[in-house]
Predict the 3D structure of the following.
Amino acid sequence: MTAKEYCIAFCEGYFYAQLGERLTNGKVTEHTLDLAKETAQTCMEQQIAYSCFDEKQKQVMKENLHEWADTVMQGFKKRLRESGRLIDSL
């Protein structure tokens, strides 16, 4: 690995550690989770758009991305709601 790759891996690891800490110990609103989901979807759509797959494969990936994101978000919200850490949006 290059020095740049180590730096990227460190920053990503730090980011995910912070995210995990907040999701396991803090409270979060549904609105905040929805915004995070939208941001992640936009980022992944851009990654798919710039990938080397053909247009048909890209379309399938985008469709699967939205289904996956919805399923994951439902699971997040359910677990956070059950643990009392999900704050309902006003």
Remarks:
- The CA atoms of residues 80 and 86 lie 5 Å apart.
- DSSP finds three helices and two strands in the chain.
- The chain has a mean pLDDT of 84.
- Strands lie at 28-29, 86-87.
